[in-house]
Amino acid sequence: MTNAYNHYDLTGEVETIEEKPPREGPIKVLVVDDQPVFTEMLRVVLDMQEDIKVVGMAFTGDEGLKLAIETQPDVLLVDYHMPGMSGLEVIQQLREAGEETTVVVLTADTGEAVMAEAIAAGAAGYITKQQALSEVVQAVRTASEGEPVVPPFMIPRILSHFHHQQQREQQAEMLKARLSAREIEILEQLARGKSNDAISEIFVLSPNTVRTHIQNVIKKMGVHSKLEATTLALQLGIITMPRD
Questions:
Q1: Domain limits, the chain
Q2: Average pLDDT, integer, range 215-240
């Protein structure tokens, strides 16, 4: 009989997870990294362990995703930064495909934003490329048991990142509710470098009306200038950086 339990991850999300039946045989591992020498070194070290078996290697995210679906490893070690499909995209697509492989990110970047992004996408944690190979082996074993692979000193930093992110999302929602559709459109034009007169012509409004809209935007957003309003709107995702 399969038991279920509530799982609380670092993002604060709660999900009901069914316990997996005990694994039989060695831990199956897939290694995906765009550095062949590093990838081969990991393969050799992991294959030396009696309880671990490397079922494949890949040097691109696309190839790694395909192999992960084909081989269904217990643990996927994937580089975060790769040309083409990134490690983050591999994690996201695996989750969208319903695959239950435990993913551990390989990275040289220990910034909490990168780590938080990977964990939010469904990674069990990360190991840096500077860590001892014995730590990589232990990380594989830890991940295979369903435990998080995150250095204790990083947990407060990652939680703080999620907290600030949540605050920014709440701030963005609050400002979106305050700003009218026309005011957001004007912010988008300001981000394109349009002057008040140009905005007047685009929306067929009088210059006075445009100035009033901009003054209202500045007041509602609690800023001091058009530039500050536009910058904050971009940072919070209220508007996006124009491509034209």
A1: 9-158, 178-244
A2: 88
* Chain length of the chain: 244
pTM: 0.60
162 touches 116 (CB < 8 A): yes
Region of residue 82 (left: phi > 0; alpha: psi -120 to 50; beta: else): beta
Superfamily of domain 9-158: Response regulator (3.40.50.2300)
- The CATH number assigned to the domain with range 178-244 reads 1.10.10.10
**Type of residue found at 156:** P
Going by pLDDT thresholds of 50, 70 and 90, the confidence category of residue 147 is confident
Q: How confident is the model at residue 184 (pLDDT cuts 50, 70, 90)?
A: very high
